[in-house]
Design goal:
Layout: H1 3-27, H2 34-41, H3 45-49, H4 55-71, H5 79-92, H6 94-102, H7 109-119, H8 124-140
Helix pairs in contact: 1-2, 1-6, 5-6, 5-8
DNA-binding region: 33-52
Pfam family, one: TetR_N
Domain HTH tetR-type: 10-70
């Protein structure tokens, strides 16, 4: 593949990822079908298939983006800091809120929760209780 074709392929792949992200963050991953992504991105469905065999391959590309959006506003120094930063981010940061509410198919829930358990400093039981309280808060306040 020539350099020009390689760059075009990389740009197309990135356009697919960006479009899938925009669709997912606004409407959920279930709406990010290959057909809808292709239509929204202005490319052919076969163009998507050239880069991604399965929808789960797109999810794998979206996972680090989601993780970054979710982790960026949070503080991990203690369960209390984490809880306060979670509530603040959920209430004041639309992108964080949308990422939390649409992350399920992108970041398997248990993987995401365990990842938080590992980076919050403090007592293991307090950390678990805090994370579950944050998730519960998000579910209750999701509408």
């Amino acid at each position: 593949m020539t350099k020009g074709k390689t760059n075009k392929a990389m740009m197309t792949k990135q356009k697919i990822i960006d479009t899938a992200f925009d669709i997912t963050i606004k409407n959920g991953f279930e709406t990010a079908t290959f057909t809808y992504i292709a239509k929204t991105a202005g490319i052919s469905k076969s163009g998507i298939n050239a880069h991604f065999d399965r929808k789960s391959d797109i999810a794998a590309e979206l996972a680090p983006i989601y993780e970054s959006i979710i982790k960026e506003p949070l503080r991990f120094g203690s369960p209390e800091e984490f809880y306060e930063s979670w509530i603040h981010a959920f209430e004041s940061n639309d992108k964080f809120r949308s990422a939390v509410l649409t992350a399920g198919p992108i970041i398997p829930k248990l993987d995401g929760v365990k990842g938080l358990f590992d980076i919050i400093k403090g007592n293991k039981e307090e950390i678990q209780k805090c994370v579950y309280m944050c998730i519960g808060y998000s579910v209750i306040h999701s509408s």
